[in-house]
UniProtKB/TrEMBL annotation:
Keyword Repeat: yes
GO biological process: RNA modification
Entry annotated with the keyword Transmembrane: no
Any one Gene Ontology molecular-function term assigned to this protein's record: RNA binding
Keyword set, alphabetical order: Repeat
Stored PANTHER family: PENTACOTRIPEPTIDE-REPEAT REGION OF PRORP DOMAIN-CONTAINING PROTEIN (PTHR47926:SF479), PENTATRICOPEPTIDE REPEAT-CONTAINING PROTEIN (PTHR47926)
Native organism taxonomy: Eukaryota, Viridiplantae, Streptophyta, Embryophyta, Tracheophyta
Stretches forming PPR repeats: 80-110, 111-145, 210-244, 311-345, 381-411, 412-446
Name of the molecule in the record: Pentatricopeptide repeat-containing protein
Length: 629
């Protein structure tokens, strides 16, 4: 079996030869060869040697054979820190966290490698709180964190405050912040929370830069929606004669997509041609997204068809583009094609498709996609779960939405916002209020969307006092500046309650430019709750902003009619004809066999409209015959 074995003389020669055999096992990536070598160790009694045992232990761990690794570990006579760390790393890699904890607890000496293994191992399986507890305990034992420790922690941060604490701890620990890897991690960490000033302060103290440094900074600017600033960083990078890679180009095209700047996007796309990145799936998917967002859907489709190979990134971008342009059937057909080509769908692909279902495709299609979720292993994915919650809520299946929400193991803020908005739109406003209180009790910070859902619930449920209290606490308690939509809901809520003076005071105190939309909510309540002078004042404001809108004339005419001022009523109606005011046209949609039919102003805007009206007439006739009408 081993022709050179007998030629080696002495223990040192045997050890060297065994080491060479283990190197050969690793290079060949052969588990059987490792077992053969291990068997020879057992025959010759070399399995107790620390060095060879560690090498063999590491190989079994690399191949995922933890039980064999544990046998090797037990055979080592004198275990050193390397032996314990290799065993610990193998257990964590295989997911046996309980056994890893027992080994860690039994270690005679725990060095920084041991602690890093526990922190990264628990974090990789989603036990973030446990990982942070290990870090705190590590500091208590006096073990000094390494740069790798902080690089792990930077990937776990959940708030801007936490990010700053880790940065301060790095400074106190004497970590070299000019290190290029740690610097890049800091830039990315601050960029995730939109702290652009901190990202720039990090790059200013870095002695060296690489392409990852600039990619991280450009991405940070893009993430914080400072798109022009992101383009400026690209120019600075080019001035330093650094050559962009595919990630640089894809981020730049995403910047141009958000700016809706097709000209700059084309320049970036031409630059990709020059660098040879145009058929890279990451770059191509970003270009498809760019053309789609700039209303050049034909270019998106053409670029997608020109690709030699499809992958999940490309298909996801194309399905999202179809969904964005209300082409639900095309998105569904492409999704079926991806399955036939054995391309594994991503969670983003499924989420995009579910957004189509809730608007342009029937719920049966959504049920079919939902049945695929467990098969794809996405049942615990937050993105997919949130999309399912949203889809069922939009169809009115609130119980299904709640069941999915309650079964989610990890609920992020998007999950809470989605279920709260779904409950509100379906009239379950009391449940929305209860969920909001529960959200606060669990220590999660609400954002603008959360307050949109809760204020809309207060508006629908006429919870005026509670709504005003929540609105007043937005900025003082939670640091969320009220947006225009929050002011609109509060004004509408006060108007419906007859508190027109308070509503007008809030409008006049708004830090935003007032629009006709916010005055409409007051105008609708004026006919019931206000005197004629207030009604005329509000109507005049809307007419000044939108002379052709129909609503203020209608409300004024009704107000004059209720008070018997017939001449004023006739004058208002003549003003409608003179100015050419237009009535707002509402739309209704109905989905039949994967087709969406649109009704507008008593006319059907779709081929086959007469047949639908005949069907509706037959249904009405049958209802009358059965005595339902």
């Amino acid at each position: 079996m081993f022709p050179l074995w007998k030629q080696t003389q002495g223990p040192n020669s045997s050890l060297s030869y065994c080491s060479l055999l283990l190197d050969h096992s690793l290079s060949k990536k052969s588990l059987n060869f490792v077992k053969i070598v291990h068997a020879q160790f057992l025959k010759l009694g070399l399995n107790t040697y620390t060095y060879l045992g560690n090498r063999c232990l590491n190989l079994y761990s690399e191949f995922g054979h933890v039980n064999d690794a544990l046998k090797v570990f037990d055979d080592i006579s004198h275990k050193n820190s390397t032996s314990w760390n290799i065993c610990l790393k193998g257990l964590l890699k295989s997911g046996r966290l309980g056994k890893a904890y027992h080994v860690f607890d039994a270690m005679p000496v725990r060095d920084v490698v041991s602690w890093n293994s526990m922190i990264s191992g628990y974090a990789s399986y989603g036990f973030l709180s446990h990982a942070l507890e290990f870090f705190v305990e590590m500091q208590g034992t006096g073990v000094r964190p390494s740069g790798f420790t902080f690089s792990i922690l930077m990937s776990l941060v959940s708030s801007p405050c936490h990010a700053k604490q880790i940065h301060c701890r790095m400074i106190r620990s004497g970590i070299d912040l000019s290190n290029i890897v740690l610097g890049n991690s800091l830039i990315t960490m601050y960029g995730k929370f939109g702290l652009i000033d901190y990202s720039f302060s990090v790059i200013l103290i870095m002695k060296q830069f690489d392409i990852i440094s600039w990619n991280s900074l450009i991405w940070a600017c893009h993430r914080a929606e400072h798109h022009e600033l992101a383009l400026e960083q690209f120019c600075r990078m080019r001035a330093m004669e650094l050559l962009p890679d595919q990630f640089t180009c894809s981020t730049l095209m995403s910047v141009c997509s958000n700016l809706r700047d097709l000209d700059k996007g084309k320049q970036v796309f031409a630059f990709c041609f020059k660098l040879g990145f145009v058929y890279n799936s990451i770059v191509s998917s970003a270009a498809i997204d760019l053309f789609s967002k700039c209303n050049r859907m034909k270019d998106s489709v053409r670029l997608f068809k020109e690709q030699d190979r499809w992958d999940s990134v490309l298909c996801n971008s194309m399905i999202s583009s179809y969904a964005r342009h209300d082409l639900g059937e095309d998105a569904l057909q492409l999704f079926v094609l991806t399955l036939r080509k054995n391309i594994r769908p991503t969670e983003y692909m499924v989420s995009s498709l579910l957004s189509c279902v809730s608007i342009f495709l029937p719920v049966e299609v959504g049920n079919q996609i939902h049945s695929l979720v467990p098969k794809l292993g996405f049942e615990s994915d937050a993105i997919v779960a949130n999309s399912l919650v949203d889809m069922y809520a939009k169809f009115g299946f609130v119980d299904d939405s709640l069941n999915i929400f309650n079964e989610m193991k990890i609920k992020d803020l998007v999950s809470w916002n989605t279920i709260m908005m779904g409950l509100t739109y379906n009239g379950n406003v009391s449940m929305t209020m209860d969920l909001f209180r529960k959200l606060i009790r669990e220590g999660m910070l609400p954002d603008r969307v959360t307050f949109t859902a809760i204020l809309l619930a207060c508006n629908y449920g006429s919870f005026v006092d509670e709504g005003i209290k929540i609105f007043s606490s937005m900025e003082t308690e939670f640091g969320v500046k009220p947006g225009e939509e929050h002011y609109e809901y509060v004004v509408e809520m006060l108007s419906k309650a007859g508190k027109l003076k308070e509503a007008i005071d809030i409008i006049e105190a708004m830090p935003y430019r007032t629009t006709s939309d916010i005055w409409r909510s007051i105008l609708s309540a004026c006919a019931i709750h206000a005197d004629l002078r207030v009604t005329e004042g509000v109507a005049k404001k809307i007419i000044d902003m939108e002379p052709l809108t129909y609503l203020p004339y209608l409300v004024l005419a009704q107000a004059y009619q209720m008070r018997g001022r017939w001449e004023s009523m006739v004058r208002v109606r003549k003003a409608v004809d003179t100015r050419g005011a237009k009535e707002f046209i509402g739309y209704s949609c109905i989905g039949i066999k994967n087709h969406v039919y649109t009704f507008a102003s008593n006319q059907l805007e779709h081929y086959g409209g007469k047949d639908l009206y005949l069907l509706l007439n037959l249904m009405v006739w049958e209802m009358e015959t059965e005595g339902y009408v």
